[in-house]
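User: I'm curious whether this sequence folds into something compact or stays loose and floppy. Could you predict its structure so I can see for myself?
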Amino acid sequence: GLQSIHEKSAILTNRGHDLNCFLTAIDKLAKTRLKICVHIINSLPNESKEEMVETAQLVGSLPIHAIKIHMLHVISDSVMGQQYLKQPFPVLSKEEYIDVVISQLEVLPANIIIQRLTGDQKTIFSSLRANLRPLTNWWMTCARRSIHSRVNSLT
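Assistant: Here's the prediction. I'll summarize afterward.
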């Protein structure tokens, strides 16, 4: 998975590979008949809205078929969870998350399938998770409007 194009986030999340490795893998996969889906994570520690949108822009320039967008999930017994419990870092509010995702959707090409806009796992941020759950219907309504708008602009 990608999560972020920013090296500082790859190191923080112990991703285990750099951006060039990811891009090489995408290049190789694009030469097959496989469908490619990329996961990105919003609200990684110390990433700005601009950096999150940059990640979506780069992903949108790749020969992929789909994207899954997630809010950061921090499990209490993970390394990051233990770090958060000792020294909390800021996470996006519901409103900030919506703003970031809308900005990301605006830079993604219309042909990329949006498979997910939020996750629903038990995390340290359970109150935020509960606040994001009702967004599913709202996201779908917005997506339908966006699709209709994109189709109309093509005709």
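Summary: The two ends are 36 Å apart (CA to CA). The chain has a mean pLDDT of 83.
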